[in-house]
Amino acid sequence: MIIGRKGKRPHSARQPSLPGLFASPAPTSPASRRLATPHEQAVEVARTRLTAAAVLFSIAYLIIAGRLAFLTLLSDTPEIPMAHQEISDSVASRADITDRNGTVLATSLPTISLCADAKKILNPDEAAKQLLATLPDLDAQKLNEDLHGSKHCVAIKRHLTPKQYYEVNKLGIAGLEFRPDERRIYPTGNVAAHVVGYTDIDNNGLAGIEKQLDTRLQEQPEPATLSLDLRVQTILHRELANAMANFQAEGAAGLVMDATTGELLAMVSLPDFDPQHPGIATDDQRFNRDTLGVYEMGSTFKIFNTALALDSGAVHVGDSFDTTHPIEVGSQTIKDFHAEPRWLNVAEIFTHSSNIGSARMAERFGGARQRAFLSRLGLTEKTSIELPEVGTPLVPNARDWGEPTTMTVAFGHGIAVNSVQLAGAVATIVNDGIAVHPTLLKQTVASNHIAQQEHIITPHTSAMMRALMRLVVTHGTAKGAEVAGYMLGGKTGTADKLDSHHHYTANARLSSFIGVFPLNAPKYLVFAMLDDPKGNAKTYGFATGGWVAAPVVSKVASQIGPLLDLPPLTPDMEANAQRQLMKPLGAQIVDGMPVEEGSNYAAAESDSVQ
Questions:
Q1: H helices of 70-148, where?
Q2: Between helices 124-134 and 140-147, what is the axis angle to 10°?
Q3: Which of 19, 314, 447, 486 has the most crowded CB, counting CB atoms within 10 A?
Q4: Which position among 269, 299, 354, 606 bears the catalytic label?
């Protein structure tokens, strides 16, 4: 090699133009390019064709990708990739049902249902065999009939689970189709079963709120908000179930109500059922004892008898009545099972739950006033609560409302109502006499102001009744209902039970207690009733309202008070509040109330006549 000046390599001599490794490069200009051999020509043609094919594939890919992007991002109705599926309109979603705090009580979830076009099934016998192996709960005979039939879409199974859908889809049987469906779900189970109700397989309401608000739930997407508070509902359910078990009762019922708005925060009927599977429940489990059942409420009716007596002016709180001897009226005998050997004033009659004293008070105002008053309280007509399962009260005809009826109705005998009616009437009595209408729908401030206030009794009479209800807990038949710091008061009831022929059953009773707290500013009403409870060792064999129902109300009130931002009063505050509460009765009445150590009126209460 020869190196020239400045280290630059000189141009080498041109290589000879020989074919092979050392041949000179071919000209790059298309015009000047020449294909030397037929082989090179063939290679060039193949390259051109491959290039054209690649361009065509690229264009096709871009078209397909663009179409997929449009369907995925811009289309309003995306397809559901399911084998053998016949695309149909989407299933309309049923609105949720929630409690007052937004907790879901009923909702709808999308599901898949399996149907078959029998005309497309190539081998019905083999298809039936494979389906039965995958879905063993199918009816074999019906399945064979369906697959051998001629229907284009016969339902095979509703609401497949994801695993079932996968397994059926994997079979690859022509003629099977998957359809979008919807299933109603009840996350809280049986806790609020009688209120919420249930639907059929096609999501049509069959009971409870589901039936009452069926059209609204189908047509409006917004949830239906109930007045229930699931926390309160759970507490009431637990305490009633415990009492029912402890006293071997046939059933139980109870509710918690806002005593000013009428909103039901809880309503429980036992035994209950699973709304997810209502078909396996018995008639007794589906029966709503709170609304459909009407019962003689016993001495709880003395609240209304006493309120009417005082409000009408026919009786004054200091008036006394002879309760030492039974009353013979018509063919009936009215007596007290804890008779006092002396005359009793109104406060003592109410506190000791005297049937004789209540009947004597009713004589003062008469049957016409009594019937009219009970009517104004909503106790003679069917209640308007938002449920389809509502019983009609059993009320004597006006023409039969003579002296015997007047006297027995005074202590809840001879008239039957449901729990909701009783609660609404008692709430009216303690709410300064302003009518309270029970509801299962959450109320707004605006809706409360729309309702015109109707005064049934005067605020002064209401104040006296609150004081008397407090005395029942501090001195009378419901000492077991006391809750420290909550000023709870109420009235017990123990009524003989009617059978299906409206005859009284020996040694069978309905034991109840209705309580309100705090009585110095009534806010919540709690009712508990046990159907034919049996006394036990802890109750010394007694099963009256004071022994079995009053403690239930006490337990519920002690738990829901703090939960609902109602802290208990301190002992000093409670003592001062109680003094103020008792003022409408007068010091003479309050100070004259006997306190008998060792006496338990709860053990002897009964509201029967003979």
A1: 124-134, 140-147
A2: 140
A3: 486
A4: 299
Looking at the chain, the domain(s) classified CATH 3.90.1310.10 span 97-225
Instruction: Report H helices in 70-110.
Output: none
Q: Quote the tokens at residue 289.
A: 């004892």
Cβ atoms of 355 and 302 within 8 Å: the answer is no
Sign of the alpha-carbon torsion through 334, 338, 342, 348: negative
Q: Which helix (H) or strand (E) holds 81?
A: none
309/361 Cα distance (integer angstroms): 7
Across the chain, what does the average pLDDT equal?
86
The contacts found for 161-167 with CB under 8 angstroms, 24 or more apart, are 164/134, 164/135, 165/112, 165/114, 167/134
Q: What is the pLDDT of residues 45-72, one digit of tens each?
A: 556 656 655 655 666 566 555 555 544 4
Question: b/e per residue, 395-412, with b = 16+ CB within 10 A?
Answer: bbeeeebeebbbbbbbbb
CA pair distance 182, 207, nearest whole angstrom: 19
Contact (CB, 8 A) for 530 and 492? no
Residue in the block written with tokens 């074999």: 140
Structure tokens at 190: 């049986």
Q: Is the peptide bond before 584 cis (omega within 30 degrees of 0)?
A: no
Distance, CA of 70 to CA of 63 (rounded, Å):
11
Q: What is the pLDDT of residue 21?
A: 33
* Phi, psi angles (nearest 5°) of residue 384: -100, 25
CA proximity to 183, closest of 243, 112, 126: 112
Q: What percent of the chain has pLDDT over 70?
A: 80
Beta bridge partners of 248: none
Task: Say whether 110 sits in a helix, a strand or coil.
Answer: strand
Query: Does position 401 have pLDDT exceeding 80, yes or no?
Result: yes
Sequence letter at residue 250: E
Helix, strand, coil % over all residues of the chain, rounded to 5: 40, 20, 40
- For the chain, give the number of residues: 610
Tell me, what's the pLDDT at 366?
96
Q: CA 317, CA 500: separation in Å to the nearest integer?
A: 40
Domain topology for 97-225: Penicillin-binding protein 2a (Domain 2) (3.90.1310)
Q: Average pLDDT, stretch 397-404?
A: 93
DSSP state letter for 441? B
pTM of the model: 0.81
For residue 421, what are the contacts with CB-CB under 8 A and spacing of at least 6?
Answer: 378, 379, 383, 393, 438
Specify whether 269 is catalytic: no
605 has a pLDDT exceeding 90: no
Query: Using omega within 30 degrees of 0 as the cis cutoff, is the peptide bond preceding 271 cis?
Result: yes
Residue whose pair of structure tokens reads 């129902």 in the numeric block: 549
Q: How far is CA 413 from the centre of its chain?
A: 31
Confidence class for position 337, pLDDT limits 50, 70, 90: confident
Q: Please tell me the distance from the alpha carbon of residue 185 to that of residue 167, in angstroms, as a whole number.
A: 24
Task: Please report, to the nearest 10 degrees, the dihedral formed by the alpha carbons of residues 434, 512, 212, 161 taken in order.
Answer: 140
Print the SS3 string covering 163-194.
Answer: HHHHHHHHHCCCCEEEEEEEEEECCCHHHHHH
| Residue range(s) occupied by CATH 3.40.710.10 in the chain | 233-603
Domain 233-603 in CATH: superfamily?
DD-peptidase/beta-lactamase superfamily (3.40.710.10)
